[in-house]
Write a structure and sequence with these properties.
12% strand; SDR family oxidoreductase; Rossmann fold; 281 residues; Sc_DH/Rdtase_CS; alpha/beta; seven-stranded parallel β-sheet
């Protein structure tokens, strides 16, 4: 097979993963598009530079097998994009412990397992790039999103820490921080998760208040967000820099700037204002 650049992407059955796989393939890359159930979920166009493989980030054996098959087929892997993930929304008290564990198992430990599995290959080559898909809520917390927020905070910390370690062996690690991407199936699944667990009635006021806040977020979401995030991922994969974080979509820029550029007092005052704090303090 061709010796051009090869990218392995997790979570390609739909949404951002599928769009990213197609974009890289259209730009001449060899693409290893992985997903949990390729036979039933594969919507990618069949082409010579796309290899669809089964990879479940909760199953280490499928991670190992996919990496081995990809290297055997394309000769090497240059970039790994940890995209697989989902959002668990709702009142923390109402969400069962097993779902809490699942949230971290997919969003954090899944990315860690894929990273650990690819590192021997990258060490041998003395180069490689790992892109972890984070979120604006990996920077600031949102009520009713405590578990998803916590998982992305963890991913941010993990990625930043290993970026120093892996730089010593020629491997670059980066974070993509998008806001709302309505064109994917992510918001729909998050809404389904939210409706799965009934919270105690004492939380009704904050749930009702946040409904209006989230509606404003959806209204202000960038209609071209998916395209912009995909292009940012491609830029981060090809710009030959060691830039750690890439902030995408304008909807979250004000809150990220508040978090990173303002005092704690100013940040918390503004966020409580956004979340209609008087209703539930």
């Amino acid at each position: 097979m061709t010796k051009d650049k090869t990218v392995l992407i997790t979570g390609c059955s739909m949404g951002l993963g599928a769009a990213t796989a197609t974009y890289f393939a259209n730009n001449g890359w060899n693409v290893v598009a992985t997903m949990r159930s390729p036979d039933s979920n594969n919507t990618l166009e069949q082409r010579s530079n796309i290899l669809v493989l089964k990879l479940d980030v909760q199953d280490k054996s499928t991670i190992k097998q996919s990496i081995e098959k990809a290297i055997d087929y394309f000769g090497k892997i240059d970039v790994v994009i940890n995209n697989a993930g989902f959002g668990m929304n709702g009142i923390f008290e109402s969400i069962p412990e097993e779902r809490v564990i699942e949230q971290f198992d997919v969003n954090v430990f899944g990315a860690m397992n894929v990273t650990r599995a690819i590192l021997p290959h990258f060490r041998e080559k003395q180069n490689g790039l790992i892109l972890n898909i984070s979120s604006g809520v990996g920077v600031f917390g949102l009520p009713l999103g405590s578990l998803y927020t916590a998982s992305k905070f963890a991913l941010e910390g993990f990625t930043e820490a290993i970026s120093y370690e892996l730089a010593s062996i020629g491997v670059v690690v980066k974070l993509i921080e998008p806001g709302a991407v309505a064109e994917t199936g992510f918001p729909k699944r998050s809404a389904q998760e939210f409706g799965s667990y009934k919270a105690p009635v004492e939380y009704n006021r904050i749930i009702q208040s946040m409904g209006g806040v989230f509606q404003k977020f959806r209204t202000n979401a960038d209609p071209d967000a998916l395209s912009k995030v995909v292009q940012c991922i491609y830029l981060a994969s090809t710009d030959n820099t060691n830039q750690l974080r890439y902030l995408v979509t304008e909807d979250i820029v004000p809150m990220v700037k508040l978090r990173r550029e303002c005092s704690e007092e100013k940040f918390m005052t503004k966020m409580r204002e956004i979340f209609n704090y008087e209703l539930f303090r």
